[in-house]
Amino acid sequence: MAVEILLRFTAMGDLLLAVPAARALAARGSQVEWVIHRRWSQLAPFLPARVHVWGKIGDLFPLARRLRALQPDRVHDLQGKLASIFLSTIIGTTVTRYRKRDCIENIRSAFGKYPLSGGEPRPVWQRYLETVGTPGAAPDGGLVFPSNRLLEAQNWLRTERGLEPYSYVLFHPGASQIGKILPKAAGKAFLDALHNPVVIGDCPEPALTGNFVDFRGRLPLNRLPDLMMLSNGLISSDSGPMHLGRAVGIPVVGVFIQTDPVLGFSPIPSPRTKVFSRTLPCKPCSLHGQRAVCPVGNWACRDLPWPSIAREVSGFLENAA
After folding, report:
1. Would the CATH topology of 3-131 be identical to that of 155-320?
2. Per residue in 149-208, pLDDT tens?
3. Predicted TM-score of the model (pTM)
4. C-beta of residue 169 within 8 angstroms of C-beta of residue 318
5. Which of 175, 176, 155, 158 is nearest to 167 (CA)?
6. Angle, vertex CA 268, rays to CA 208 and CA 115, nearest 5
7. Which of 119, 187, 230, 272 fits a disulfide with 320 by CB distance 3.0 to 4.6 angstroms?
8. Domain covering 3-131, topology
9. Are 131 and 97 in contact (CB under 8 A)?
């Protein structure tokens, strides 16, 4: 059996967009070894591969020795950063490397130019499949769940969180970058439209009011798939939880503010996935939502008809459940 190593360390969304590549390698008969960063180690049991974790640069040398002992046939570097280039080099076998954005787009982003071109039209998950040599594979982005996980998750939900399974909808308005965080008006509209909303995430912004259960900052990462699996769907900013909801298989609505699906980071397509993104002449103005100040001065990407969007989203989730 061929041994193939995947290097995709971070971030959560990118890890989940690499799941189809791992599944495609396994489907062609390979033993898949996946290297991730320690920050995401709680997701390791759900990934369709044997997972190796590192946290600091010094970990890479012993990790390389362990991986060399497997006599790998190939390393697939889907990260494309210094750490992955270094690790793939010292493992000492054939390497395929993910081609990141073209230089012109990176230069435009670095100098604050906009809109960004979206010069590579193919989505990231598709480019990952092409990098590992499975360009025609169907994008299976599902996570791995042990057979007893559902029952155990139901017991946890009732006893630890006081919720009944399939009685709530998840709402994730925050994000790691300020330009992706949903505005207060969006939060109010979605909370008003949803039945029994549960708010998740680590970001306390935006400040929300209304009748909802607030789990922000109070949920370990390894329990988030359980909470999602037992929900009626998820509305999320452009963020890791958006991709996690898609990987769990629940109905998902992704709302893009400053960023844009044209950059390739939209969820893996499915009939239960919907994306909202307003077309504007200034958008996207950043690769990952880094702008704290609108370059045009009007934040048109946030000024959307949120009540009507919320009604449409609520209807989509009901039909997709």
Report:
1. yes
2. 999 999 999 999 999 999 999 999 999 999 999 999 999 999 999 999 999 999 999 999
3. 0.96
4. no
5. 158
6. 70
7. 272
8. Rossmann fold (3.40.50)
9. yes
Closest alpha carbon to 241 in 260, 257, 255, 261: 255
What is the rounded distance in angstroms from the CA atom of residue 162 to the CA atom of residue 210? 19
Q: What are the residue boundaries of the structural domains of the chain, listed by start?
A: 3-131, 155-320
- The answer to whether 272 and 209 have CB atoms below 8 angstroms apart is no
d(CA 193, CA 308): 10
Query: 3-state secondary structure string, 101-119?
Result: CCHHHHHHHHCCCCCCCCC
Distance CA 239, CA 51 (A): 23
155-320 belongs to which homologous superfamily? Glycogen Phosphorylase B; (3.40.50.2000)
Interacting residues of 182 by C-beta distance below 8 A, sequence separation 6+: 173, 174, 190, 206, 237, 255, 257
